[in-house]
Amino acid sequence: MATIDVRGLSCPAPLVKTKKALSQARPGDTLQIAGDGDIPRENLKNYLRELGISFQEMQVGNQEWILAFIVPGTEALGKAQEVPVRDFCPNPALQESDPGNNGAYTVVVRSACMGQGDEELGRLLMKSYLNVLPDIDRKPAKICLYNEGVKLSAQGSPVLESLQKLEESGVEILVCGTCVEYFNLKDKIAVGKISNMYNIATALAESAKTVVP
pTM above 0.85? Predict the structure, then answer.
């Protein structure tokens, strides 16, 4: 039995860790989520119900609890990757807090380089930008990776850890599927959701602001 330890984590990290565990599980596996606090528990229960997953709830302490369940079939596992965790645990940092913010924004990464000019300098700047992004107060709502930008979500990327942190904090990362196939990276993508141009175009159209570093 595998245990997903979300104790001490604030929303949306418990949901993100659960979604990741489901993506790696097989139908029939037994998983349990060990956590604390009422809000994370209720968010996770609502998430599992949305996926059609039956669970057992156990109280193991004053605030600590365990949700145990058997991983369902492939249809539910596929749905787990499509259902946005933000629907069950809104992240205030990604919402419009005042009119001056002009809403949440989307970052578009279309190259491994930032700006134009010297390529080596551009790669250094892009690495610096994405590595500092998890630490700023106003994080993007989404990051769209396409063309050479998809390489930054693959194994061995110098910004992989930072992108994973952003995803765990609730930032949705869309990776262009056509670009992934073009660069033969299908088995190497380590962060984000492989998506399509319809979803990327929709994300850009709905974004209050788009940032292209």
Answer: no
